[in-house]
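<given_protein>
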Amino acid sequence: MPARLGFSDDLESLRLQVEVMALLVADSVTGARRILDEPNPEIAAQLVEADDAIDEMHVSLLEQCYTMLAREAPVASDLRLIVSVIRVLHELERIGDLALRVAKAVDDIPLVACHPEVFEVLRALADNVAGRFLAVQRGWSAASLEPLAELDDIDPLIAFADPLVSRLMALSGDDAVRVALAAMGVGRSFDRIGDHTEIMASRLRYLVTGDPSYLAYEVTW
């Protein structure tokens, strides 16, 4: 097999493996959202197992990327793909970790749910972030910017910050501190998932268009 043909096969294999990892992370994000409605320790345990698998794929795929860079010295679009994958692997791993943080708060979710004024903001934020991630994940799977158009119809993440903080500040009663800490932890986790998802979207735009201005946009998150 000619060397460059073999390299093309390696690139395609890399794309497919990143797609598999993104699907695992999508399941984790969906699972984290589900915990708000079903605070079941079994769901939380599944997210723990999923995070282990995500971490393993992260390490394995990073090694593949570094090997390909050293062995093939890729240029142009091939180089852009590999360096973009390296960045996105980090974002996927971090999103998996943040979904795990939500899972670890499973015992406090019923307590937070007793405060609908707080809980409804968390659920809206979680829905927003889950939809945001699934749109970007589809974009990466298809190497297409078309699914990113859905982001224009989703409220910005900052829209949830003030309502959540103001409602937490208004809490009273013996459980107020515990509820505030749990809700802030869960809210912060979903918010950060949204931030990492935006970085993935920026990197996809760079990968598809080659426009380096999207790399500068990443640092705003």
DSSP finds eight helices and no strands in the chain. The chain has a mean pLDDT of 95. The domain at 3-218 is CATH 1.20.58.220 (Methane Monooxygenase Hydroxylase; Chain G, domain 1). The CA atoms of residues 32 and 99 lie 5 Å apart.
